[in-house]
Design a protein that fits this description.
about 270 residues; alpha/beta; Rossmann fold; five-stranded parallel sheet; 9 helices; globular
Length: about 270
């Protein structure tokens, strides 16, 4: 099916499927290696959420959720009675110029500290034989641009429809993180830290090709087989590393603001 025909089919689907309204969507907004794969599996395992992982779709049109529903149908992942359609977005080419209705959705922001993120991305792309991110500097450029986009996007969502988490929070206390997500999505029963284990390692769009099939729950980072074994020093200038750390802290400060107000869960102790 060519691109024009896919777009036409998707927009037709949006007109006849009542799920295809942004107020009935939930997105993970993050970056590569932030923990989004396991969280996606948990979310999509709930009866109220229809999805499979990363659909690689741009949300620049009022009918953009039509192609998402069709993508889920093609993957046999569509739940016609689900309250929410789900996608995760890890690249700004998909959410850098969105339709204003995009911000009617629920959003789970997810970020990870720069040093471990850069090491993990380099490890992944080396393991799959890709030269897309051949240097720490190339990954740093992606990370910086993506976190800047996430920080800019955060205030566009209503405080009751967004939640921000760090990778450390998600993997360190998954039950608490899932309880907070369940609250903003008004899920009953709430999310549980479990999902069906994948049968094979590589399923395009589903996530991490190295370890997705090895787990059936969100686990600590030191339990994941994709964690680089050695704490390799980054080949980045100290000032560059400092700038990335400050950007990460800025994202975490934004996320903490809602918790300090008691929005979407109990305030952080």
């Amino acid at each position: 099916m060519n691109t024009a025909l896919k777009q036409a089919a998707g927009r037709l689907a949006a007109t006849i499927n009542p799920q295809c309204e942004f107020r009935r969507a939930v997105f993970i907004l993050g970056h590569m290696r932030c923990g989004s794969t396991a969280l996606s599996h948990v979310l999509c395992g709930h009866h109220a959420i229809s999805g499979f992982g990363e659909a690689h779709l741009a949300y620049d049109h009022p009918a953009s959720l039509g192609p998402l529903a069709l993508a889920q149908m093609r993957r046999s992942a569509w739940k016609p009675r689900a309250r929410y359609l789900f996608d995760k977005i890890l690249h700004s080419r998909y959410d850098g110029a969105v339709d204003p209705r995009f911000h009617d959705a629920r959003a789970v922001f997810l970020v990870r500290a720069p040093t471990e993120t850069i090491r993990s991305i380099r490890h992944l792309f080396a393991a799959i034989g890709s030269d897309e991110y051949p240097t720490d500097a190339a990954v740093a450029d992606y990370y910086e641009e993506r976190l800047a986009r996430l920080c800019a996007s955060w205030p566009q969502f209503a405080s009751g429809q967004r939640i921000g988490l760090s990778f450390a929070e998600l993997t360190g206390a998954p039950e608490l993180a899932l309880a907070r997500i369940s609250s903003i999505l008004d899920l009953s029963p709430p999310l549980a830290n479990r999902y069906d284990q994948l049968e094979r390692a590589v399923i395009p769009g589903v996530g991490d090709p190295l370890s997705s099939h090895k787990f059936n729950a969100i686990v600590r980072s030191d339990q994941a087989s994709t964690a680089p074994g050695a704490a390799r020093p980054l080949q980045l200038a100290a000032a560059r590393r400092s700038d990335l750390e400050e950007l990460y802290r800025e994202a975490c400060r934004l996320f903490a603001y809602d918790r300090e107000l008691g929005v979407n869960g109990n305030p952080t102790p």
